[in-house]
Amino acid sequence: MSFSVRLDDAKLRRAFRGLSRKLGTRVITRALRAGAKPILAEARSRVPEVTGKLRKSLKIRQKVRRQAYDYILVSVGTTVPYAAMVEFGTKPHRINGIRHPGAAPKPFLRPAFDQKSDEALEITKQHLRDAIEKGTP
To answer: With 0-12 CB in 10 A as exposed, 13-18 as middle and 19+ as buried, what is 48?
Structure first.
């Protein structure tokens, strides 16, 4: 389970491709990862769990398709299989023949994004601005 933002606007994608060619994919990826850090910290602080496994599993991940600088995806997410059940809750169900009443949702990832997305964008813009001013990757 992860949360990511995708740029679907063609003009914006072209601008990022041009920027990526000038600065390098590494610089843009670094800027996006820096911007994701406040969201990660907020998500970790909101995880309602006792063991800490879900909290520890939250990470910033990246995927870069370098062919024609097509995309750079940076996301905050986890590979813990029950993360979606915590975020969205569950309906009543049976586990090994025993009736489970279900669980109320305890969102942690979406509220973290909602609260910190403006800060993440400002951090990303500042990193890119600094890289452009330096002019070197």
So the answer is: exposed
Task: Give the containing element (helix H, strand E) for 98.
Answer: strand 98-100
pTM assigned to the model: 0.79
Residue 2 to residue 119: CA distance in whole angstroms: 19
Kindly give the interhelix angle for 10-23 and 25-46, rounded to the nearest 10 degrees: 120
Rounded Cα gap, residues 54 and 109, in angstroms: 11
Per-residue burial over 15-34, b if 16 or more Cβ lie within 10 Å, else e, is: ebeebbeebebebbbbbbbb
The pair of structure tokens assigned to 54 is: 């879900």
Task: For residue range 113-125, list pLDDT tens digits in order.
Answer: 999 999 998 998 8
